[in-house]
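Here we describe the complex-level prediction in full. Unlike the single-chain runs in Section 2.1, the two entities below were treated as one system.
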Amino acid sequence: MAETPPPAGGAPGAPAPAAEAPKKEAPPARLEGKDASAHPWVESIRAAVPDSVVSAREYAKQICVVVAKEKIVEVARHLKDREDFRYCVDVTAVDWKRREPRFDVVYHFYSFSKNDRIRVKCGVADGQEVPSIAGVFLSANWSEREAYDMFGVRFAGHPDLRRILTWEGFHGHPLRKDFPLEGVDTGAAIYPEEWPEGGGPAANDPNRKVVS
Amino acid sequence: MSHEKPILEHPEVPTLFDVQEMELNFGPQHPSTHGVLRLVLKVDGEKILEARPEIGYLHRGTEKLFETQTYPMGIPHTDRMDYTAAATNNHAFCLTIEKLLNLEIPRRAQLIRVILDELQRLASHLVWLGTSGIDLGAVTPFWYCFREREQILDFFEEYCGARLTLNCMRIGGLPFDLTPGWTERLSEFVDDLPARIDDYEQLLTENRIWKRRTIGVGVISGEECIERGLTGPVLRGSGVEWDLRRAQPYECYEELDFVIPTRKNGDTYDRYIVRVQEMRQSVRILRQCLDRLEPGEIRGKVPRVIKPPAEEVYASIESPKGELGFYCVSNGSNRPYRLHCRPPSFINLQALPRLAKGHLISDLVALIGTIDIVLGEVDR
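The structure predicted for the assembly as a whole is:
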């Protein structure tokens, strides 16, 4: 798992480490990320939902707007109704381990009329809730469940916030950076008669690494 | 002798005729679920009142694995997601990293990538056609479809040594050039294919049983498809002419001449027609690519150690199932900080309860087939 200093603000825009190894081949020209606060979509969000936009950034022609998490439903509804971003492509999260707030919840929206995408992010601390956008976009339902299952980010107002890929009773959230790659003891919840609570391979069990 | 209470009136035993609803487990080991999908059905007789998918049986933590390995080491993991279409998975992954690195890939590599993609689309649609035929009792098309699919897998095998988990693309290009004679043999196969597709259509398109089982089953409107995030042939079967190969062209799709097949009704039969038409368009694309193929480089200028800038990108392609995207967050090291896959099967499966509601259990089998899910991709 990568050890990095957490980037400032909401965007992971910290400059890359300067160590560029070989000189044999010319490295490809690097794109520069730039501030996109003046982009019309960002302006439109700012005008429609006051105090929502924290920052905006553009990289590889992709607009990424960081908004306050309390405003995410309003922003989503504005993008859907006024800016014609009718298709919610994806909802996911990123764990920034040592940053505060710890998680980014990342939304991708697509507009058929503009034929373009926008990325919206909001920071959320461990244990805090993000308002669910499943009421605005039906397709966000399972994606939010997945983000909850994998990261433990809870979505307030979600119609059916259960784990989706793991099972109810699973310990931990697998995509958090502090979740061990070799897995955790999972025996207890499914067969309590066979595996008592705390059963399964112990922390110092040499075979434990095999489980992944 | 006193009578005992008749069993039907006994308070603790439910009467057989009062039972209106029951819960039924469909899968995870049911052959028509195309993998390990479990559906908890609430049924009234044969009628489905509610279907609740329970997924995750194939969850292997692919996204976690991406984070622990270098960028090129992620490509083989993508093979295992949609295992009927490994080439398109490789492609989406490589495209994302190339976007992050701002890499150009040479023209020959672009053309070969499109050829591999379209062959993969054909193979995936053939698996879909064969297996959904079997689900509805049409066994014969299966043998025809898998005959051609075997030939396609032979082409893959000759190209990269693998038949299913191809690992056939690299960041910035391709691992190998084509072997001598490959294009000629592929050319013969492509010439043959339209007649073979006619054969499948002859077995199904006007088949009365097939039509009775598919027309009007699982109707969904284009608007609702967008609302539910459905993409791929499901969206096009409902009349929305949207295909990422045309909407946001990648590689050299821009210059290729093909039609996006659409249908109006949005039922299972229309989705079948759309997929068959897509196979015909794939043949057209393959023919054009083969004509344009010229000798040249197959790998762009790729740094020896792939260390993208600390940025984030999202890139997606039109996989046989729909929009397959990757969202990559880099922190400047040689491993992705976070790599998330947007799998079409996962999002499309979400609409199954809506499609299944009110239909019979036997139609549910048709519906699982028609949204064309691969559980390896749903669960990752």
